[in-house]
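Ticket #4471: structure output looks truncated?

Reporter: J.K.
Steps to reproduce: submitted the chain below (131 residues) through the standard prediction queue, then opened the result file.
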Amino acid sequence: MAYNTITVNHFKEKVVIKFGVESKIAGSINDIIKAIKEEVSKEKGELVLDLNNIKWITSMEIGLLMQMYKILDKKEKKLSIVNAKGYAKNALESTGTGELIKIYNNMDEVYGAEKKGLSIDEMKNIEDLLK
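Returned output as attached by the reporter:
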């Protein structure tokens, strides 16, 4: 599936959504909803939003994250965030978002436990995802 504002990668039970440069969560919401519907299948148990390119998060966007959390929670799926920095990280921390949504510091934490015992091809796949 092609998306205009996000890139979607799969790794085992995780679907990782990376936002384009200078993207906004609200501006990408249609693509995120499509990804939730189409990419988060029975085999994929966790949706990870990579906020590396997100500089700001508004209260409306935090509300959108909470809505995504509720939708995925009803489907017994997880929502996680990785690479939140600066004002975006401060907004997530000050609102207590991390109490419901797992917040990883970096991609190594996302894939860290699963790297052990992987084949060379699987490790190359991880390296491609981290670029």
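Triage note (M.O.): checked the attachment and the full token line is present. The beta strands are 6-11, 14-19, 46-50, 78-82, 102-104.
Status: closed, working as intended.
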